[in-house]
Amino acid sequence: MPTIRELLKKRLSDKQDVLRATPGILGDISGNVAVPGRPNYVYVRLMGVSGDALAEVYNNRVANLANLPVLVGYDPLQPNLMQVLSTRAISPQVGEDNGNLAVVQPHHLSHEYPTGSDIVWVQLMQFLPFRVFPAGGLNISVYRGVVYTGGAWRKLEETVTHDLSSFVPATEGKACFVLVTLDNTATVTFTKGSEVNLADLAGTDIPAAPAGTALVLAAIRLYAGQTAINESTTNLDIYDLRWPTYNEAQGLQHEAVTLDASADAILGLSGQEISADSQAANKVLAGPTSGAAAAPTFRPLVVADIPAHTLIMSLEDLENVIESGEATGDILYLGDWMEYPGGSESKFNSALLTTASSGTTANLYDGDKTNQWISYSPGPHWTTFAFDRKRFVSKIVITANAGDWITFNYPTDIYVYGSNTGIFGGEETQITHYVPSGLGVYTITFPSPRTGYRYYKVTFGRENNTCRVNELEVYTMTDEAVWVNKTLADAGIAAASHTHSADDITSGIMSQDRLGSGSDGDGTKFLADDQTWKTAVGDSKHAVIGILSGNLIVGSGVIRLYNHFGKALTITAVYAAIGTPPTGQAAIFDINLEGATIFTTQSHRPQIAAGQYEGSASAIDITNWPDGYYITIDVDQIGSGNTGSNATITIVCE
């Protein structure tokens, strides 16, 4: 049985004057067109050849579209290659609408990415919304479009044309870019970049988008002597910068940043930059001083801002301090030095101050035990030395034989004395008496508890001859300062010594010897700035001041003001003042003594009228303020418009 190829070849083998072809339909009955593994080969259902036979045919002329009517045959230029020659027309039947017989059926899939066999690549510039294109000469047009600016949809209603001739560089050889943008109101704007040499113009010369930009459209190249803006493959002056290449325009992110009233009071705003406003010293960012929650402001601290705490410390709690006696005195002061219990012993290496001696002492403290200190006079031989302050000597080491060729001149008795005056005229204390036994090294120890002295005297007993000593070494104990409790009497401060007549002191420095004695009896003198005593006029008065920082808020007072004057006071008046006055109605305050109002007649309460800065109350119903009792300040009414802020309440007492 002959094959399809043989049958087709026989049919086409006869001599022909025109190209003969066999009709067919692309694809198999399942719609498959491309032959797997054979590039450019397609399935064709041949018509009129032993029925609709299926053939594999070369195709590079028509779209690979299933059921597309085609003609199949041999091209004289390629007589051995059976191929698709073209599409074929189908004549309509009688009564059939020719419009329903499409020569080329829909075949968009063959042009679509990524599976199409003939993909159509589309350039960004082919999209029209907001497209910038030449409009003749130095004009450009922007196609209409719609954009969302972050707060609303904006529309460029129609294509608009703009003249860019004013941006063309005037200097020969210079060029620049002009950035075309759309702002948040859909207005086309232009930003010119820096002028550079035409040969050096690059993308980095495109200027930045201005603030408020919603969309970047294009960059236009302009150069000196230019007469037209071109857009071609060989001369391109328009660089499309629309959506796919730009996504950082400010308008696409958010609307312009604004500050509400509370934030504007503490922050500054410049464009998109937020900064903190400068504030006066000693203020903190905090909520209201009392009452309901409110936006924070910068204000001074009040007592209620500080958490309650108690700090109790005994003298033992103080680091490196030793207590002497109980903490029952009137004052605590840094007193004497005392030996540190368990402290270490060390040689005192600092140069000792030799204050006096019975002979030459140059070699006594030099550390060279071969040199000798020699006193030639008969009688006791001695030396004194002084510390910078009281020291606790633990031992003294005396060398009295090294290199000594006169072997009998050694001390027979050694006495050690201590003094805090350095006089050694009878006030000194004998610390020890040491009896040496021949030449050698004498170690004199002072057992604990030791008494410290600043001055020490060492006496070498040899009544009838000279005395020779090589070296004297002093060892001291660790010590520290002592905090001492004293009564006024212990400290030498007697109350009676400060009872003086005001007339006894007239001017100058108030030293003790200028103070007189007794009293002038009237009790009304005071020391004025000119260093003279003046007579007071009128009765003594006291003022207690309460401060209500920030905006006034209706509520009970929480800050307690105690009477610490040591006596009962009589309240005579209450004054109110305010930094920002209330509006709409008066601000009214109340004073509570131990939680109860002193204005039992509420109309007597102090108030500041609307628009005024001060007010007062003098009709006080409860005037007695006992010693140790506290008062609080309530805010009973605030302004209905402006509440009023930063009020000061002054309570005057006698």
3D structure, described in words:
By secondary structure, the protein is an all-beta fold. It folds into 5 domains: 4-111, OB fold (Dihydrolipoamide Acetyltransferase, E2P), CATH 2.40.50; 124-253; 345-477, Jelly Rolls (Sandwich), CATH 2.60.120; 495-520, no CATH class; 542-653, Jelly Rolls, CATH 2.60.120. The protein is built from 3 helices and 45 strands. The strands form 13 sheets. A 5-stranded antiparallel sheet has the order 3-2-1-4-5, covered by helices on one side. Strand 34 and strand 35 (533-535) form a beta hairpin. The chain is elongated. Mean pLDDT is 80; it is low at 93-102, 245-253, 318-327, 495-500 and 505-523.
CATH class of the largest domain: Mainly Beta
What would you call the structural class?
mainly beta
CATH homolog superfamily of the largest domain: Galactose-binding domain-like
Tally of DSSP β-strands: 45
Spatial order of the strands forming the largest sheet: 3-2-1-4-5
Radius of gyration: 56 Å
The CATH architecture designation of the largest domain is Sandwich
| Overall mean pLDDT | 80
Helix content: under 10%
Largest sheet: 5 strands, antiparallel
Based on Cα principal axes, name the global outline.
Answer: elongated
The tally of structural domains comes to 5
Report strand %. 35-45%
Figure out the total of helices. 3
| CATH fold field value of the largest domain | Jelly Rolls
- N-to-C terminal Cα separation, in Å? 140 Å
